[in-house]
Give the backbone structure.
Amino acid sequence: MNEHSRSLRPLPLGLSLGSFLVVGYLACLALAIIVPDRGLHQAWLQFYPGFAWTPLGMLIGLVEAFVYGLVAGLVFAPIANWFGVIRGG
């Protein structure tokens, strides 16, 4: 197994993390609709600028969740690969 085959690819990792955060966002949104008035929306107002309980606001939150995961993967993979190369595997 060579060094390249062990490295993380940034784009697939970013797309995976973005999709994961979208699923989590939708699950939290569904829970907030099923069990209202539990204060779940407070974190969304902090971490998802533009989020509101409107169709447009929920769509903005969905896009932001995906972008956060995408950026995390695009940043994390090269860093992890760099440390993997430095330490030898």
Helices lie at 3-6, 10-34, 41-47, 55-87. The two ends are 11 Å apart (CA to CA). The chain has a mean pLDDT of 86. The chain is about 80% helix and 0% strand.
